[in-house]
Amino acid sequence: MISFPNAKINIGLFVCSRRPDGYHNIQTLFFPVKGLFDSLEIVENDSKEDEFSTSGLIIEGIPTDNLIIKALRLMREYVAVPPLKIHLHKLIPSGAGLGGGSADAAFMLKLLNDKFSLGLSKEKLEAMAAKLGADCPVFIENKPVLAGGIGNEFQPADINLSGYTLQIVVPPIHVSTAKAYSQIKPALPSENLGTLVKHPVQEWWHLIANDFEIPVFGGHPEIKKIKETMYDNGAVYASMSGSGSAVFGLFKSKPDKPWTSTYFVHTEEI
What we know:
Alpha-Beta Plaits, 4-stranded mixed sheet, 8 helices, 29% strand, alpha+beta, EC 2.7.1.148, 2 domains, GHMP_kinase_N_dom, ATP binding
């Protein structure tokens, strides 16, 4: 059985306060990017052990630390799952603020639930996904949501971007999320993000911000330049996604690609 874990972008990201547990309360809007996806396949294995293989983009780290394997271990705490052959074809750039690893983990839970007819509810899968990472639960329902808490408290998002073209550009730069958080002074936004996104998209450029841009742009001017180039190229709204390094733009028509060949570029009509 195969599934296709897709990327996401963050429309707005306000770091509101630091929590006693060391995490941060945020406001953000998770928006699925259905045209940019990995491929995840599982089949039962005649061997007594799991086998995990990958292709596509290089995945850093050891396989046992991969969120897909952690999702499998977590599922086995609740139900018996036989040995599996697992293959991941990676197309979503890692460490770019696009949620690829989180999507892979959440889709693994859904894939196991479907393949073995486990009958786990959406709420149960979301609770399990939350144990794997703050971004993971959003990929269970996989639809636009306003998120609070550490990114795991959801409200429906009334947002329609049909007719826009989305372009995502990822430079070959790794951004440390921990370092970016350490440089932010948490503060409540002057207006709730849920209210801000109801404004016309053409007004978002001066209303909706990503708090990570200030520290990340300071350390990586090349990422700031990508955002500026998107506006020069006709973007109605442009922003960094998550803690970077991906930058996305919303365009009324298909944009040009004035990007160096070292950049990853994805364009799709929403």
